[in-house]
Structures are given as structure tokens and as C-alpha cells.
Prior knowledge:
By secondary structure, the chain is α/β, with parallel strands linked by helices. The chain has two domains: about 70 residues, CATH 2.40.240.20; about 160 residues, Alpha/beta knot. The protein contains seven helices and eleven strands. Strands 8-7-6-10-9-11 form a six-stranded parallel sheet, sandwiched between helices. The protein has a five-stranded mixed sheet with strand order 1-3-4-5-2. It is elongated.
Amino acid sequence: MLPLFYVADLPTKVNERCRLVGHIGHHISRVLRAIPGEELLLSDGKGHWSRVSVITLDKTSVELAVLESGFQAPRDVSITVVQGITKGDRSRENIELLVQAGVDRIVPWKASRSIGKLPDGVEKLKIAVIEAGKQSRRYYLPEVADPVDLEQLQAIIRSADLSIVLEAHTDKKLSEVVDKNAHLTSVVLIIGPEGGISEQELEMMVEAGAVPAKLGRTILRSAHAGIAAVSALSVALGLW
């Protein structure tokens, strides 16, 4: 499997040459230890990609030539995950898992029971998105939105075709609230923080149109529930 790197100015014409410098050039040359003739993948993170070949390289840069390029169309259904902010390094782990699961948008939520904080905003989370995108070979990088409060979350719920809030104490399973024949184009999945979702928050989300659902009998950690829920959702929607 070819290594993938993201570049803002993506070369797309066959035989077109480009030079990558800085940390990407250094990584290809010194960490990956690429050699002339070796092939790599480049993407702009917006669906466009190019397969390239190494021409020359030094310690801090690499010259590449385009072999072929293409565009990956977006999926028919967009999945947004609203994640209650978790504590410590679990936020990064959570982001990495969601990216690998294939979500299109990640929205941190400042829930009333959130223990963690985002002292550096979402910049570190965006770095985690890029690293996880490279690992999972994604040509589309998900958006990481600024943290939202409950009122803003209600607006997100109202804007989607279907919004699901994970709630362990409901009788409905996630598979029972998703109809793959409903021609959905946007689904929002809401996951509470370690302390859970308060009754008031749940009531306000349901009032905005969210449907409570559970994953099963077991209770997952907040940082891990997302990948399980998105996986189940992807199967239910026929995406997998």
C-alpha cells in the first residue's frame, strides 16, 4: 500500500513535476527513506489524488513526477459526530478513531458534565485528523468544527435528516432507528462525555428532533463509543 501525504497545491497533470520541502520532504527522504522510482500518493484532502514517482531527493526535499490522478466522489450520506469533550489524551484518541471510521465532520461539544478541556482550541485535533487520515488512506479529510454549546447543538440536530443521541437507558437499539431506504443525506451522531448526558440536555436534544438509541448491553468509554457507533451506522446505511 502506497504511503499518502497531504499537500495544499496538488499537482494533477501527468508528467507534471513538483518539489516538496519542509517536514513532508524530510519525512519522505529521511524517515521513509524513499529512493528514486518509488511511488507515493498525494492528496489535497478534498477528494483529489495523484500517484507520483520519486525523481530526485536530498535531506530536506524531494522532486516528484505525476503518474496518474483522479477524484474520489463523496459518499451519498454525510456523517457528523458531535463528541462530548473528553479528558486528557483521550480527545486525540477519539479523533483518530473517528477519522478511521470514515466520518465527515467532528464537532466537539462542551457538555455540562465534560471533564476535559481544549486549551489549544482544535488545532491539535486537526493535526490528529491529518495523521489518522494518512494512516487510513483518506482522500477526504473530515472537518473539525469549533466547540459548540447545547443551543448550537440543537441547531445542528435540526439541520440533519436524522440525529441520534447515544443513551444507555433507552429501549431502542441504533439499528432500529436507522432506515437505509429512507434516502438520508445527512446523519448526526451525538456522544456524551465521560460523565454522561444530563436529563436536561437529553430533553433539549429530543425536543430538537434527536432520537435516543443504545449500542447494546455494554457501556463503552466515551472516546471509544464513536467508532463502534459509526461502524454500526455505516452498516445500517449500506455504506459498508
